[in-house]
Input
Amino acid sequence: MKEAFASIIEAVGEDLERDGLQDTPERAAKAFNYLTRGYQQTLDEVVNNALFDSDNSEMVLVKDIELYSLCEHHMLPFIGKCHVAYIPSGKVLGLSKIARIVDMYARRLQIQENMTKQIADSIMEVTGAAGVGVIIEAQHMCMMMRGVEKQNGVMKTSMMLGLFRNNPSTRAEFLSLVS
Output
């Protein structure tokens, strides 16, 4: 990867011998590995058995989980927040694990629509919940820095599973708690 970054830097017309660029290919490779570390993680490793018996059957919501991802089309960042809710069905998930699941999928080359579904499906799979709702709101640098260059556009995606899809009052409660 270091050599690939060196080639890119040279291709834009820069001199790799210039003082500020001498170690840039190595730094860029390390940064890119960090930004895509989700590929080295599995759902089982992230959850790490942090499931606990519970007789709670009311909504659990974690709101405003910040996320940083790279768009798979231009490899430019998109930055936003994720709201995750579920209705337990005998098990609750450790609080930090929800944020870790969001990070695992965000730290891959992504499109927001797929990431929203991946997070929801994973929470449902791990918890066996009666329902899961996920909303992501993000700003995409590929739309802000290039192309149409619109600075204020925010993309919102949602995925509703189980009771969040089938029960209008559950969906309404989730949406009111998020707004």
Q: What stands out?
A: The chain has eight helices and seven strands. Strands lie at 51-53, 60-71, 77-87, 91-93, 109-110, 131-140, 155-162.
